[in-house]
Specification:
Strands 1-2-3-4-5 form a five-stranded mixed beta sheet, sandwiched between helices. The protein contains four helices and five strands; from the N terminus they run E-H-H-E-E-E-H-E-H.
Length: 147
């Protein structure tokens, strides 16, 4: 397996994986969402990246998307791993760990001291992996739809 940046010819598989990721979390990508996120990924003025993991044949089997966030209590940036998805048929073979380690290496290379992410309580398989990086925090996420 190899992690590499998303490339423009990957659009169809990226969108397929993003759909599967949204379905896992019982949501969907809103109208215009694919194009908006695609633009962020390739805009050099956006601190937003997407990398994919490919198998030995070069087939894309997963992705991660991450961005930078200001952390006012530390006066530093943190790297927020916003999305991580690996195809179900290859889970448990190291792809998720490789993607997380890739994001951690990205942060380390930029002297960003923290990588953080969220998951849902019911994501037990993912949490088994995440727990190997450290304990879950006590924070509770609030999300308010602004209309």
């Amino acid at each position: 397996m190899k992690v590499r940046p998303l490339e423009k010819p990957d659009r169809a598989i990226w969108q397929e994986l993003l759909d599967a990721y949204a379905t896992f979390y019982k949501t969907s990508v809103p109208e215009g969402g694919y194009d908006r996120v695609w633009t962020w990924i390739f805009d050099p003025d956006e601190d937003f990246w997407c990398d994919v993991i490919v198998d030995d044949r070069g087939k894309v089997i997963g992705f991660t998307q991450y961005s930078l966030m200001h952390r006012s209590l530390s006066g530093q940036m943190v790297c927020y791993l916003s999305d991580l998805y690996v195809m179900p048929d290859v889970r448990g073979k190291g792809a998720g760990r490789a993607l997380i380690d890739h994001v951690i290496a990205f942060a380390k290379a930029r002297n960003i001291p923290t990588v953080r992410w969220l998951t849902q309580e019911f994501n037990y398989a993912g949490r088994r992996l995440y727990d190997t990086y450290g304990p879950k925090t006590d924070f509770i996420l609030y999300s308010v739809a602004v209309k």
